[in-house]
Specification:
This protein is of the alpha+beta class. It contains 12 helices and 20 strands. The strands form 5 sheets. Strands 1, 2, 6, 7, 12, 15, 16, 17, 18 and 19 form a 10-stranded mixed beta sheet that branches. Strands 3-14-13 form a 3-stranded antiparallel beta sheet, with no helix packed on it. The protein has a 3-stranded mixed beta sheet with strand order 9-8-20, with no helix packed on it. The radius of gyration is 25 Å and the shape is globular. It starts with a strand and ends in a 21-residue tail after the last helix.
């Protein structure tokens, strides 16, 4: 068995620098429901299919508990600055704090935006031109500096400017949670109103009889009559393991380019962010009915995967990752924290362009007085 290697900043940098180095870093982490063995957990539901459960050739049923996209959206906000009444977040200094102001002094952090730098909200603000220039620079020269200095997590978690330039960069960090050998359960419920509203002449006994038991009836929707709910999704019983897999793609990392002077620093910086996100302790409350923790009986271990498939255990933890990221942060020039403004005119123009291309009818802007176009930048 290979001895576990304790990392130094120099050995971590080699992952970004050495083109013959490992192809990936990988963590396999076993998770448990807080209910313990035999506990029922609730996967996410998807339109038209309910739970995403795949059936393998041997009959094993594998459920998606948290998808790659969902995991990315949970991890990215760890870099967001804390609210005024919270303890200061030490990770916030690692990335520019870019926000979009809208309405009456409301703000959205770019770290909460689903499509990152390629999101419709970005195109609908005065950040649009800078984002567009960064994507075009990447497409024309391969230089990702503009993206890295403005929205570096777009490189860590991947970005596709699918509605505009078509610039596409793969995820450096990928995480997913699956449950193996699951049985799907059903659940039923019955709502009983606390009083008989028809007896109090809120509506007639005839209306009560007609609408009782129909979940789609007006009286049922407002909670005035008895409503049964049968055979709804009831979670899954996991007979196998619940596993989280995290992969840091070092080949994709080494393909990132900056200028001749900053390429090495850029790769190391993005690696630092990826390591910080990957070692962040799991926030296991994924949704109602799904609260998970690491299994203390099966310690998770990081491995560096070589080109020949050899796996070298490495001692990678949150302390080492943060120390490295903070050190490398000093070597790259990032954009300043800044607030940009949403523009309904830009949003409307963007929508009109899409409708024109599809041959669909245009839409009209809302008339009359409404919320202000944006919010003022704070001093």
């Amino acid at each position: 068995m290979n001895e576990t290697i304790t990392l130094t900043d120099q050995s971590i940098s080699s992952w970004a620098d050495d083109i013959k180095g490992p192809v990936a870093l990988h963590l396999k982490q076993k998770l448990l429901s807080v209910e313990g063995d035999g506990g029922v957990i609730f996967p996410p539901t998807y339109a038209d299919i309910g739970y995403n459960i795949d059936i393998l050739a041997d009959g094993t049923r594998v459920a998606t508990i948290d998808s790659v996209g969902s995991q990315a959206n949970r991890l990215e906000p760890i870099f967001k600055a804390s609210d005024a009444d919270e303890t200061e977040n030490p990770l916030a200094s690692l990335v520019p704090q870019i926000r979009i102001g809208y309405g009456s002094a409301k703000f959205v952090s770019i770290l909460d935006v689903g499509h990152r730098l390629g999101d419709a909200l970005i195109r609908s603000s005065n950040l649009k031109d800078r984002a567009n220039a960064a994507f075009l620079s990447f497409l024309e020269t391969g230089d990702a500096t503009g993206i890295a200095t403005l929205a570096p997590t777009s490189l860590v978690f991947g970005v596709w400017d699918s509605r505009d330039t078509q610039a596409k960069l793969p995820r450096i960090l990928q995480s997913v949670i699956r449950a193996w050998d699951v049985d799907e359960l059903k659940r039923s419920a019955q709502y009983n109103p606390p009083i008989d509203y028809s007896a109090l002449d809120v509506f007639s006994e005839e209306d009560k009889v007609k609408q009782e038991g129909d979940a789609k009836s007006p009286l049922a929707k407002r909670g005035f009559v008895h409503v049964p709910a049968g055979r709804a999704l009831g979670g899954v019983l996991v007979r196998g393991a619940i596993e989280r897999h995290i992969t840091i793609n070092l080949i994709a990392l080494r393909r990132l380019k900056g200028t001749e002077e900053n390429t090495r620093s850029l790769r190391r910086y993005i690696l630092g962010l990826a390591l910080v996100a990957a070692t962040e302790p799991l926030d296991g409350f994924l949704r109602q009915g799904c609260l998970l923790t690491p299994d203390p009986s099966v310690p998770a271990k990081w491995e560096a995967v070589g080109r020949d498939g050899a796996r070298l255990p490495v001692k990678l933890d949150q302390t080492a990752a943060l120390r490295y990221a903070q050190s490398i942060r000093k070597s790259i020039q990032l954009c300043s924290d800044e607030t940009f403004l949403f523009s309904k005119d830009l949003a409307h123009a963007d929508l009109q362009d899409v409708l024109a291309q599809s041959g669909a009818k245009s839409v009209k802007k809302r008339s009359g007085k409404g919320a202000p176009d944006g919010a003022t930048t704070e001093g």
